[in-house]
C-alpha cells in the first residue's frame, strides 16, 4: 500500500531528525555543564 510506505518513510525521517536533535542537545549540555 502506497500510503503505508509513505507513512513509514516519513516516520523513519522523523526518527533520524529526532536522533540529530538529541545529539545537538547533548552537545549543548556538554558546553553548559
Keywords:
mainly alpha, rod-shaped, 33 residues
Tell me what the structure shows.
This is TnpC protein. Keywords: Coiled coil, Plasmid. The protein is mainly alpha-helical. It has one domain. About 95% of the residues lie in helices and about 0% in strands. The chain is built from one helix and no strands. It has one helix at about 1-30. The longest helix is centred in the middle third of the chain and has 31 residues, at about 1-30. The protein starts with a helix and ends with a helix. The model has no long low-confidence stretch (mean pLDDT about 95).
Summarize the topology.
Layout: H1 2-32
Specify the overall morphology. rod-shaped
- Please give the domain count: 1
Give the SSE string. Answer: H
Helical fraction: over 70%
State the helix count: 1
A few lines on this structure:
The chain is mainly α and 33 residues long. The chain contains one helix and no strands.
Amino acid at each position: 500500500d502506497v500510503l503505508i510506505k509513505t507513512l513509514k518513510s516519513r516516520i523513519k525521517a522523523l526518527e533520524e531528525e529526532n536522533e540529530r536533535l538529541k545529539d545537538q542537545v547533548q552537545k549543548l549540555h556538554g558546553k553548559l555543564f
